Fold:
Amino acid sequence: MFPHHREREQPIFSARAHVFQIDPTTKRNWIPASKHAVTVSFFYDANRNVYRIISVGGTKAIINCTITPSMTFTKTSQKFGQWADSRANTVYGLGFATEQQLHQFADKFKEVKDAARLAREKSQDKELANTALTIAAPQFSQSPPVMCVNGPEDKLFRSQSADITLSSEKERIKKMLSEGSICEMNLEAELFTLQDSNSKLVAALHEANANVEQWKKQLAAYQEETDRLRDQVAELEAHGGQGPSDLLKDELTQSLEELESLLKAKDEEIHILQSKKAEYHEMEHERDEAIHRLREIEMRNSDLERRIQNSEQNLNNSLEERDRMDSEIQRAIEILDIKIFDLNDLRQSLVKLIDK
Structure:
């Protein structure tokens, strides 16, 4: 039953301590549950939404305690703490190597107890509502990292160079991402500006084209009127005194001059619109260049993303390898503790034999 629970439970905190249980007869004296310091871990079962404290000594579990909201961890000295388990009808005691480890374990115990209380409240609300919602862990994810508090022993085996390499790799990946994102955002802003200018120029060009068509019609009408007036003037000059008076000629000449000045002004407006049309073509060329540059940036970003994925994969492999080495080192430490304890027993036995 115990290995089955370990498969679906996830560790959330670990520390090393000497484990004791209260004497069931006297309820005053402590009985050592382990010959040496062992790993004491908090586990979270996501399927049942349950928190437990588990410690294994050899092949048997010396602590298998389900945490309830009514439990309290009490610090009885600078390096010793205890709590009562009503289900097992016992009191557990833990002796730590340092005061800091005791404080960390006590803080984690309080945090997990609060989480268990919230989980129970949510479970009760679920039963009352008769729904099929799955209650998630209130403060911990299903696969949080294991925090080991093993004192100076664990620090001797940590690979500082691996941590520095992983940190530098993360910084390099972040820098690559930030540079690609900034360049892409600048090009997108430039493209949006060009598109906005392009739309304005297109609207102005359409309006100008419509005005040009209208002005062309007016120009044709003015030219027809001018030709008609010229014909009339020529006809009047040919007929001599039979035509209108000199006053009428002056009026016709003035009208002709006004029409010619109007034609000149319209020609200038047409030239201005044609120059704007050339500017519009130049803006279109700049827009095409910006689109081409944006596509190149997107290709570079794709390449960066592929390289980042490879780097993340290598990083994950490195982390897995380091975790595997940490677990092997942890097992080696436990075996070494057992050997040291056995040697200590052997030394004491030899001392007793020598004393005899």
